[in-house]
Structures are given as structure tokens and as C-alpha cells.
UniProtKB/TrEMBL annotation:
GO molecular function: phosphorelay sensor kinase activity
Histidine kinase domain: residues covered: 446-671
Protein name: histidine kinase
InterPro entries (alphabetical): HATPase_C_sf, HATPase_dom, His_kinase_dom, HisK_dim/P_dom, HisK_dim/P_sf, sCache_3, Sensor-like_sf, Sensor_HK_Regulatory
Membrane topology: Multi-pass membrane protein
Pfam families, alphabetized: HATPase_c (PF02518), HisKA (PF00512), sCache_3_3 (PF17202)
Enzyme nomenclature, EC number: 2.7.13.3
PANTHER family: HISTIDINE KINASE (PTHR43711:SF31), TWO-COMPONENT HISTIDINE KINASE (PTHR43711)
Subcellular location: Cell membrane
Domain of life: Bacteria
């Protein structure tokens, strides 16, 4: 397949994948934009519906304010003239015909006067609004029994009662938009209250006003799950008041108990809906105000946007495809010319390459390619001449090589004898070195044992002197004896390390693995180095997860490993520094077995990366100056490495100069042995 075709296919695949990605992203973005647009539209619709309710409440407040501000009403209150108060309510009813409830009560809640159509509420009524907010204007809606509002036998309660579609029974629960306005005397003292109400059940005012503001949208006001006011209608049914609302919890709760989603409305189409809870004056739930808009409005808008995106993608793909074809031809033209040159060179014609490098309308890179082909042709021609000359010389040297070959064959027979003799010498040398190493190990072990006995006596004697069993020591004597005790103990530790090293090299080290509680061993190791941390004001931080973590190891060797690593970390840390010790369970990626990972981290002087391997060699330190400044023999890390390895683990060291050192070693987990 030609480069041009490959380039076209490659660009086509990249473009198709890119366009599919763009289409996917744009589709998600359009869906999200649609979702936001629908929510904003529905929130605006809810706001408009609430504004209609608030406008009715404000109008009732205005009417109440006008009539109460008349001096006659105050006089009627003070005189207890109930007939005149009732007449004032009648005048107010003539001005605001939609009023369904009108009542004057005194400050204690006793009914003074009411509208003719309202029920006879003589006596005292309970008005929690007045009790909780005395002297204030209250505008809200509340749920009430319609039979308590209208006079029995008037038929008005039945006019506003909602007929249940499921049973045909009447529901007398009503939602009333109510205004309570205080009546005050000239001194501002509350004489009583004027209570006005407009029943929302079957009230066409709300649905008509809403439809004029937001056409092609439905409005429903419901108590519990029963529609009491709605502008929904269809060909089969003109009024859906008395029907039940769907399960709103199938929608998405967007906050403040507002539900958003999609439903199949009784109108016969899918609608986006938004249910907003109606709350009373005391923030008590009373019902839902819901609005809905057809999905088709937004689906058509989404479809148009998708068509635009697809059209732009197709046009872009066509332009890039044509550009790829033209660009591919411009690239392959000099390549074809180079191929022609190569074929001619293969046929032995080295002159045809001249002139291609001066081709017009070529990029700098293609010109460089053709010039390089010309130079290659010239070089090949010169090489051909050199090869012919070399072959002539080679023929001459071949004759000389024949004579040398005879001499080599004669020397080869004696060479094998010399190699065999040298091999025997090397084997003898290796055996001597092994024996020498064993002698050294035995010598170290013997001399260590010989030194250990008198050294133990020195330690015991110095301890007896320090305990002042043979008499009191002065300050100077105590100092010298303490130096003897410290030096002897340090020498004893060195001798023990040499003995352990000899045992390991001889394969005689006794290892007794068992279940060990990590926290317990760690506390013992820390107890040994704690005095050193106090001297340098170093903080020790431990982290063992979980607290009852157990490891399968020789407890004595594990404690010695931790002691060596901790003492190194403290020794090479700066004063007032920190040393962190952690242990946790890990899985080995090689064999899937469980191990306990121990980590000792310090922020001290660190080790150069090139010296990390040397620190595990016996009697080695990264710098002789460390030995002078910090002390030590260079056996701590080599011994720790061998102790870890004989227990089936491994050890690692990571460090940076002036940053710190992290020593990590792994030992089998106890639970792995149980399995």
C-alpha cells in the first residue's frame, strides 16, 4: 500500500474518531444544556404562578388596609357595633367579589362580624397566626374544611368541594389564600383583626392568569395527591380537577423538596414537570404547586442543534480528506524520485542522480533527501573503486595468510596444553583462597571467643566498681570506670558481630522462626536506642498497621536488625531531627505471598547513590571520615542483610545526600505460615 493511501486512511480514521468524540461530547453538552433550559423555564413558570398568588394576596391586603384605615371602623370596634362591622364587610365584598371569607375578630379571637355567606362562627375561634405573630400583617395560604367556612345548607361548600374521580365522593379539604390585617387604635394598640380569604379550589383566576402569561403549559395545585385547581384538559376530558397526581418521587430531587422529571400527562403527551411544595406561615407543608411543559418544544430545538453539529462535522471531514490527498501527493513525489535513483544505482548507473536536487517547488526536507541521494551515488561510486582496489590487495594478502595458517595450526597443538596447565593452576589458587577464608573465619571465631572471656570479666568488674560494692568512688574514678564499662560493652558488641558473621559464613547460624508481635519487638529495640535519641533530641515516630501485626521471624535476630537500622538512622541524623519506623502487610508481586514490610526513615546526611552497594560489604564504610566522626566498624548493614536473607526476606536501601536514608526490609507474614 502506498504512503499516500496510508496517509489518507490514517487521517480518515483520526478524523472519524475525533468527530465521533466531538459528536458524543456535543450530544452530552446539548442534553445538559437542554436539562438546564428546561429547569430554568420551569422555575420561571413556578415563579410566575407564585407571583399570581402573591398578587391576589397583595390585592386583599390593599382592600383590608383601605377599610381598616377608616375612622368609622375603629369606632365600630371600640363601640362593639357588630352590625356596622358586618356592613363594612358587605361593602368590601361588593368591591372584591372573589372574596370567599371575611371576618372581624377582637384581640382575643372572639368573632364580631362575618360575611353573610360565611358560617355563623359566634364565639371564640383559635387563630394560631395571631397568637404567634400579634399585631402583624399575615399573608399566606392554609388548609381548611370548607364546611367550616360556609353556612350549612347554602350549597357553597359543595360548589368548592372537589369530586374524587376514583370514588365520586366530595372532598371538603380546601386551600385558602388568607390575609389577616390588625385593627389598631390611634395609640397603636391592637383592637382586633380583619381576616379575608380566597378559596383556591376550582378557582379559574389562577389557571387563567397563568395560561395568559405562559401558554402551552399546565398548572396544577394539589392537596396531598389530589388536584384541586388545574388548567389541564384533553379531547376526552375538559377538567382534571379531582384526579390524582403521579408519583413525584420518580423525578429528581433538586433541593428544597422540589422534584423535577418527565411524565406522561393526561393531555396525551410527555411533559417535563416541576413540583414545588407550598408552605404555610409556619413553614408547614400544605400541598404542591406543579407546572409542566411539553417535551416536544425542547426536543425540536435539540434536534436542530444536532443537525447543525453533524453538518459541520461532515464538511470538516470532506475538507480534511481533500487536503490529505493533496498533501500526500506532495510528500510521495520526491520519494518516487528517490526510488528511481535507487533502482538506477542498483543497475550500476551512478550518473542518473545528478539534477534531482535542483527540482523546483519542493520543500526543504525533500530537497535535502534528493541531494543526499546524489551524494550517496557519488559515495557508492568511490566505494566501488576502492573495493576493486581492495580486492586486488586482498588476493595478495590471501597468499600470505595461507602461510600464516600453517604456522597457527602448528601453534594450536601447543596452546591447548598451555590452557590445561593454566586451568589447573587457577583451580589450585581457588582452593587455597577458600581454605584461607575458612582459616580466617576460624581465627576470627577463636580469637573472639578468647577475647570474650576476659572482656566479660572487665565488664563485670567495672559494674561492681560502679555499684560501689568495694567502697565509694570519687568523681574522677567514677568517670574512668564508666569509660572502661562503655568501651568494654562496645568491644563486646563488635566481638558478637564478628562471631555472628563467622557463623553465617560457616553456615552454622541457628535461626528459630516463630510468630512475633511486631509492636512488642519494636518497643524492645527502641528501648535500647532511647538514651541516644535523648542525647540528640531526636523524635522517634512509629506506625504499625494493624496494631496486632505479626511476623514469622527469629525474635532475637529481628530485634538486632531493627536495633542496627535504628542506631544507624539516629547516628547519621542531625540533632532535633526525626526518625520514622513503620510496619505493614504487603503482597509480593512475584509470588503473591504476604510479607511484613519494615521501613526506617531518617532525614540525616544521606549516602551517595554510587556508594549504596558498598555499605553491604563487610568492614566497609562509604567514607573513612564517617568512621572518624561517627564511629562504627561497617558490620551493621552487612549483618542485617544476612540476617534478613537467612529468614527468607530481602533488604533495600534508598538514599540521597543531605536528604536522608530509607532502609526497607521484608519478612514473611505470620498468617502466611498458618496457610
Amino acid at each position: 500500500m502506498s504512503i499516500n493511501k496510508r496517509l489518507i486512511i490514517f487521517n480518515s480514521v483520526i478524523m472519524i474518531l475525533s468527530m465521533l468524540l466531538v459528536l458524543l461530547v456535543s450530544n452530552r453538552a446539548l442534553n445538559k444544556m437542554l436539562d438546564n433550559s428546561v429547569k430554568n423555564y420551569l422555575n420561571t413558570s413556578v415563579y410566575a404562578a407564585m407571583e399570581i398568588r402573591d398578587a391576589r394576596l397583595n390585592e386583599m391586603e390593599k382592600g383590608a388596609s383601605l377599610i381598616i384605615r377608616l375612622d368609622d371602623v375603629r369606632e365600630f370596634y371600640q363601640a362593639g357595633n357588630q352590625e356596622q362591622l358586618a356592613a363594612s364587610l358587605s361593602d368590601l365584598k361588593q368591591e372584591y367579589e372573589y372574596l370567599d371569607l371575611g371576618m372581624f375578630v377582637d384581640a382575643s379571637g372572639n368573632v364580631l362580624a362575618h360575611m353573610v355567606e360565611n358560617a355563623d362562627r359566634a364565639g371564640k375561634i383559635s387563630l394560631p397566626y395571631i397568637e404567634q405573630a400579634p399585631g402583624r400583617v399575615i399573608k399566606t395560604q392554609c388548609v381548611a374544611d370548607l364546611r367550616d367556612i360556609f353556612e350549612k345548607g347554602s350549597g357553597l361548600a359543595e360548589n368548592y368541594a372537589v369530586t374524587l374521580e376514583s370514588t365520586g365522593e366530595l372532598s371538603y379539604d380546601g386551600l385558602v389564600a388568607i390575609v389577616i390585617f390588625p385593627v389598631k387604635d390611634t395609640d397603636g394598640q391592637v383592637l382586633g383583626y380583619l381576616m379575608l380569604g380566597d378559596i383556591i379550589n376550582k378557582n379559574s383566576y389562577y389557571t387563567t392568569e397563568y395560561t395568559e402569561i405562559i401558554p402551552d403549559s399546565y398548572l396544577t395545585i394539589s392537596l396531598d395527591d389530589l388536584r384541586i385547581c388545574s388548567n389541564i384538559f384533553s379531547e376526552d376530558k375538559s377538567d382534571y380537577t379531582g384526579t390524582t397526581i403521579p408519583d413525584i418521587t420518580q423525578g429528581t430531587k433538586t433541593g428544597n423538596e422540589i422534584y423535577f422529571g418527565s411524565e406522561y400527562a393526561p393531555i396525551g403527551d410527555n411533559y417535563y414537570f416541576l413540583y414545588k411544595p407550598l408552605k404555610g406561615y409556619f413553614d408547614d407543608f400544605q400541598g404542591y404547586l406543579s407546572v409542566g411543559i411539553p417535551e416536544t418544544i425542547f426536543v425540536e430545538m435539540l434536534s436542530v442543534n444536532r443537525k447543525i453539529v453533524i453538518t459541520v462535522i461532515c464538511i470538516t471531514f470532506f475538507i480534511i480528506l481533500v487536503s490529505s490527498i493533496l498533501f500526500g501527493k506532495s510528500i510521495t513525489k520526491p520519494i518516487r524520485a528517490s526510488a528511481d535513483i535507487a533502482r538506477n544505482i542498483c543497475q550500476g548507473d551512478f550518473t542518473v542522480a545528478h539534477g534531482y536536487g535542483n527540482m523546483n517547488n519542493q520543500s526543504r526536507e525533500t530537497k535535502e533527501l534528493l541531494v543526499a541521494m546524489e551524494e550517496m551515488a557519488e559515495t557508492l561510486y568511490r566505494n566501488k573503486m576502492d573495493i576493486e582496489q581492495y580486492i586486488d590487495e586482498l588476493v595478495k594478502k590471501h597468499q600470505e595468510a595461507d602461510s600464516l595458517s600453517q604456522q597457527l595450526m602448528e601453534m594450536n597443538s601447543t596452546l591447548e596444553q598451555k590452557v590445561d596447565a593454566r586451568t589447573i593452576e587457577l583451580q589450585q589458587t581457588i582452593e587455597e583462597l577458600k581454605e584461607s577464608n575458612q582459616v580466617k573465619s576460624r581465627f576470627l571465631a577463636n580469637i573472639s571467643h578468647e577475647l570474650k572471656t576476659p572482656l566479660t570479666g572487665s565488664i563485670n568488674a567495672s559494674e561492681l566498681l560502679l555499684d560501689e560494692l568495694f567502697g565509694t568512688l570519687n568523681e574522677r574514678q567514677t568517670k574512668y570506670v564508666k569509660n572502661i564499662w562503655l568501651s568494654s560493652n562496645q568491644l563486646l558488641l563488635l566481638i558478637n558481630d564478628i562471631l555472628d558473621l563467622s557463623k553465617i559464613n560457616a553456615g552454622k547460624l541457628n535461626v528459630n522462626p516463630a510468630e512475633c508481635l511486631v509492636n512488642e519487638v519494636l518497643e524492645e529495640a527502641i528501648g535500647i536506642v532511647k538514651s541516644t535519641t535523648y542525647k540528640k533530641s531526636i523524635e522517634l515516630i512509629t506506625s504499625v498497621s494493624p496494631d496486632d501485626l505479626e511476623v514469622w521471624a527469629d525474635k532475637k535476630l529481628l530485634k538486632q536488625i531493627l536495633y542496627n537500622l535504628l542506631s544507624n538512622a539516629i547516628k547519621f541524623s542531625h540533632e532535633n531531627g526525626t526518625v520514622t519506623i513503620s510496619a505493614e502487610n504487603v503482597n509480593c508481586p512475584d509470588n503473591g505471598r504476604k510479607y511484613v514490610k519494615f521501613c526506617v526513615l531518617d532525614r540525616g546526611i544521606g549516602i551517595d547513590e554510587k556508594d549504596l552497594e558498598r555499605v553491604f560489604l563487610e568492614f566497609e564504610q562509604t567514607d573513612n571520615s564517617y568512621s572518624r566522626e561517627y564511629g562504627g566498624t561497617g558490620l551493621g548493614l552487612p549483618l542485617s542483610k544476612k540476617w534478613v536473607e537467612v529468614q527468607g526476606g530481602k533488604i533495600e536501601l534508598h538514599s540521597k545526600v543531605n536528604v536522608g536514608t530509607e532502609a526497607i526490609f521484608y519478612l514473611p507474614a505470620a498468617e502466611e505460615q498458618e496457610i
